[in-house]
Amino acid sequence: MRFALSEDQLLLQDSLRKALAALAPLERVRRFADEDEASAPDIWAGLTELGLPGLLIPEAHGGLGLGLLEAALAAEALGRAVAPTPFLGSAVLAPLALTLAGTPEQQARWLPKLAAGEVTAGVAVAEPIAGARDGAGVAAEGGRLTGKSMFAIGAQGSDLLIVADRDGGLHLAQQAEAVEPMPTIDATRRLQEIVFRDTPAEPLASNGALARLRDAAWTVLAADTLGAGEAMLEKAVQYAKERRQFGRVIGSFQAVKHLCAEMAAELEPARALVWYAAYAFDRAPEDASLMAAHAKAHTGEIGRFVARTATEVHGGIGITDLLGLHYWFKRIGLNRQLLGSPERARETAAKLQGLAA
Hints:
There is one protein chain. This protein is 56% helix and 14% strand. By secondary structure, it is of the alpha+beta class.
């Protein structure tokens, strides 16, 4: 048996990389960050033409009907380009929530619009997945939501909100009392704090969908980190081939060679872990939660190592805005903590294996 990407998956990977090179060059990412835009509609429109918003949406609702492995490959490409898009919320978590827990009417109302890129969705699920802080948490009663959700993904300007309450129930809302930006280290994505005050919401089925959303989110974030780490390694190697000191390129120095080799040695096995976690989500459900936890925890740690080491190879210029390496560095940093730290993911893995209460 051949354990490798199919021709269609390789084509998807290649097409996305080429499209992102044109749609989201560093100059466009820098403009997004500097102008504090809520979104980059031109980039999302270009990716919509490739069918990216409908990647996980069933064909019956106008999507491509693909699996989480394809979504992970897309996330890897987006991380490599540090592209500012609503992919995680609008193309992964919201479609999955509706597919897993929505009624036929809710699916028919929203999935075709999401697949066509006509609407975008925000997702507020951080508290039951990563733990509540600062009094955050949403209570649900009688079809209404009250409370505060932090670290919401893509909520500003979205047409639809998928919200998790304190008990892990999922709800579909179209409005909130207030949506305020939450500053983070990552300038390529936007997180928000949402306040609900007796806000109408439609309940989604209580069938363990939140755990599936967690597994998908952790896997996709791991893939994004993998792509960002690969880009940082490539930039470090290229710089080491060009920068000269003492009449020689610095890549000829043993210390620099070792730094680049260590980054490659950390990244390469992580790719298999992330791809298997994505494969397991659809094809090996008995492994899915454990593999997602391992992928999130492991890439969070090795991503930080790669980010620091690649910056070190660049020397002083590595921390300048001119080079732009910090966009990848900070994206990896947010991925590490978003929807659960490595420690949180390892705790989940331990409980799944009966190693912790």
